[in-house]
Design goal:
Elements: E1 2-6, H1 11-18, H2 22-29, H3 40-47, E2 54-61, E3 64-76, E4 82-90, H4 99-114, E5 119-125, H5 129-137, E6 141-152, E7 155-165, H6 166-171
Parallel strand pairs: 4-5
Antiparallel strand pairs: 1-2, 2-3, 3-4, 5-7, 6-7
Helix pairs in contact: 1-3
Amino acid sequence: MIELRDFVVSDAVSLVSWVDGPAELVMWSGATGFTWPLDERQVLRYAAGAHDRMRVWTAVDRDDPGKPLAHASMMLDAPGWTARLGRVLVAPGARGCGVGEALVGAVQRVAFDEMGVHRVSLGVFTHNATAVRLYERLGFVREGTLREVATANGVWWSSFEMSILADEWRSRPAS
């Protein structure tokens, strides 16, 4: 269905078009320095930061590799034990079609099989029930709640901290 490839400059146009307002920008990026309106310059500056310990991907359909379907990034800690999944975003037209599940599953495979990490963590806003269910279905466990970590449209948002360990991932039937 999908495959991950490294982010390329032309992906910035698609990514910017998927974020349709300030609240959606916070939902995608948290409080990480992006500003509304999101533009290609900001996305390219972020993607240019990719290096050995930070991967930035675009997910594409194997049958149509020129059409971006989703985006994700992952940061590896200095010892290489833990990776942090972040900035997960699925194109509006691809939502509800299994792309998010395929994307996160592909990232888990890279983290555990290729990078050899012990743990993958992530943060997800507590009101994003669809994403929380997806992460739990893929084996992520809630570790705690970070209260009021970001604000959008004058409302404070809290997030769940979640993780999955390599042994947990390997013991899942889907892996």
